[in-house]
Amino acid sequence: MKGFGKYAIWVYSAMAFVFLLIPIVYTIVFSFNDARRTNIIWRGFTFDNWLNVCEAQTVCQAFGNSVLIGVVATVMATTLGTMIAIALVRYRFRFRNTTTLLIFLPMTTPEVVLGAGLAAQFLQAGVPKGLGTIILAHTLFCLSFVVVTVRARVASLDPALEEAGRDLYGNPRQVFWRITFPMLLPGIVAAALLSFALSFDDFIITNFNRGAEVTFPSFVYTAAARGIPAEANVIASAVFFLAIILVLVSQFSAAARRRKLAKQG
Q: Which residues 6+ apart lie within 8 Å of 199 measured at CB?
């Protein structure tokens, strides 16, 4: 029974990995398909899709819109979220607990409710839908995730370090940029990466507020009915490889820093 349990864990783990990786492998493999009209059936291997990825212009335009929206929404949400996180941890004011609850509410709200509510507000205010409304919507729901991530980092900081900076005659701005900000930076970067990932692949909230603009997820959703173009598979595969490279670089950098600190210690 003991040996059977050991093999059962291996089999279960292998099946879980296969189940998780099948969509990614399918996307990568069919990015090399000689698709011609449809990309549903394998017709042969080719590099043309990777060499002429913008031949289908709507794919690159949708991808560019998603990147633009993700970058702007990430900068806005990260800036506002960091300031809110610092205020919630470091300052005491009336309705602080209520403010914390309201900040976290968008995380628990279904996206369809959030998207429909925002669309109704834009309609009542007479704001035309487009990239601007998408960026505002993405900033709104990314803000909560930034506050949660940075708030945990702020709470872990030792206030004595900032007091030491002030004792050495540093003004508030110098203390923030030379002590507080560098120590918050890992949390801010993590929050920014999470915010960009959430914004880049959002479909539901975007679909309510995009008007005639097309983002990469909405393009893929529309194209899925007749077979996703191979160029879309190319972009999806490139994003996957880029994410893997960033993770590997981060892990190797962290390992190098640990070895350096170990040698110094």
A: 66, 69, 70, 73, 74, 138, 142
Tell which residue, 100, 85, 80, 79, has the closest CA to residue 155: 85
Lookup result for tokens 């409304």: 133
- For the packed helices 131-156 and 181-200, what is the interaxial angle rounded to 10 degrees? 140
Using CA atoms of 50, 52, 53, 55 in order, give the dihedral in degrees to the nearest 10: -160
In sign, the C-alpha dihedral spanning 5, 7, 10, 13 is negative
- pLDDT tens for residues 103-113? 888 888 899 99
Task: Report d(CA 100, CA 81) in Å as an integer.
Answer: 12
The tokens of 64 are what?
């560019």
Q: For residue 75, how many other CB atoms are within 10 A of its CB?
A: 15
What is the model's pTM? 0.82
10 Å CB burial of residue 73 (0-12, 13-18, 19+) is buried
Angle, CA of 40, 43 and 47, to the nearest 5°: 100
